[in-house]
Amino acid sequence: MKIGIDAGGTLIKVAYLEGGSRKFEKWPSVEIDRLIEKLKREHAADQIFLTGGKAEYMAEKLENTAGTSIEFDATYRGLKILMEEQGIALDHFVYLNVGTGTSFHHASPEGQERVGGSGVGGGTLIGLAKLLVDMDDYEEIIRLAEKGNRDEIDLKVHHIYAGRPTPIPGDLTASNFGNVLSGDTSDMGPEDKLQAVIGLVGETVTAVGISLAEGFETNDMVFIGSTLLDNSVMKDIINRYAGLKGAKAHIIHNGEYSGALGAIL
Ligand code: ATP
Ligand code: MG
């Protein structure tokens, strides 16, 4: 068996490959030592390939690993495989890995280059959720956010123009959380605040993605990273924002496993 591991800041993604079959699994990064023990116990005879920020740590603890890849190269190799499997045939695009933080890349037939990064990502989502509504369980946060409404929290372009013609779509957010002082906050619930947090993260990374896509003269933006996992609020925001700007967002199924898969190749 071949095992690819992308040990990230929040989650460790594991891909098990045997013959034609493939299995994916995630572990919280805080349980890294428990995973290492399990690998030593159950997979001593298997080839283990590593990537991600915590790959060196794992390589030191696991003896005889099969190799460590640079995270950005491994992720791109895995991403290309997943895109091909999902019938997404693009040879020139930008992609965003929305992990704990977000990294931005440009892909062309010559390969990928990392073109930027932002500290706004999935860690921001969890951190602000904890501070604002004292929740830290990812699944619970995204489920509750689905029921929210951020209209009274975010300031829209049309709020500022107040009925006058707007030079850009009035429905675009002018300021995330910018309407809090003027909006009706009397019955604002945790679900509304959580949706606004996801809005902040989703719109920020998408706005950067759109600018990069324009700069690199492509309409296609590809999104990966566990922050998109089952996150319908985030996915809707990405698709809507991309659409307003004439770009196309492609959200890759199992995209968070790109690095783990690519580490093996
Ligand atoms: P980085 O690449 O920045 O080092 P990472 O690889 O750990 O980090 P991802 O796994 O892509 O990052 O994404 C982590 C984010 O995914 C979290 O910050 C959180 O918002 C979200 N997430 C999804 N599922 C979970 C989960 N089960 N537990 C914690 N966070 C989760
Ligand atoms: Mg990562």
Please provide a written account of the structure.
This protein is α/β, with parallel strands linked by helices and 265 residues long. The chain folds into two domains: 2-87 and 258-264, ATPase, nucleotide binding domain (Nucleotidyltransferase, domain 5), CATH 3.30.420; 117-252, Nucleotidyltransferase, domain 5 (2-Layer Sandwich), CATH 3.30.420.40. It has nine helices and twelve strands. It has helices spanning 32-42, 55-61, 71-85, 122-133, 138-145, 157-161, 190-215, 232-244, 258-264; strands spanning 2-7, 11-18, 21-28, 47-51, 67-68, 93-98, 102-108, 111-118, 155-156, 173-175, 220-224, 248-251. The strands form three sheets. A five-stranded mixed beta sheet has the order 3-2-1-4-5. A five-stranded mixed beta sheet has the order 8-7-6-11-12, with helices on both faces. Magnesium ion binds at residues 6, 8, 52, 99, 259. Adenosine-5'-triphosphate (ATP) binds next to helix 4. Keywords: ATP-binding, Coenzyme A biosynthesis, Cytoplasm, Kinase, Nucleotide-binding, Transferase. It comes from Salinicoccus roseus. InterPro entries: ATPase_NBD, Type_II_PanK, Type_II_PanK_bac. Its EC number is 2.7.1.33.
Q: What's the helix and strand layout?
A:
Elements: E1 2-7, E2 11-18, E3 21-28, H1 32-42, E4 47-51, H2 55-61, E5 67-68, H3 71-85, E6 93-98, E7 102-108, E8 111-118, H4 122-133, H5 138-145, E9 155-156, H6 157-161, E10 173-175, H7 190-215, E11 220-224, H8 232-244, E12 248-251, H9 258-264
Parallel strand pairs: 1-4, 4-5, 6-11, 11-12
Antiparallel strand pairs: 1-2, 2-3, 6-7, 7-8, 9-10
Bound molecules: adenosine-5'-triphosphate and magnesium ion (MG).
Residues 6, 8, 52, 99, 259 line the site of magnesium ion.
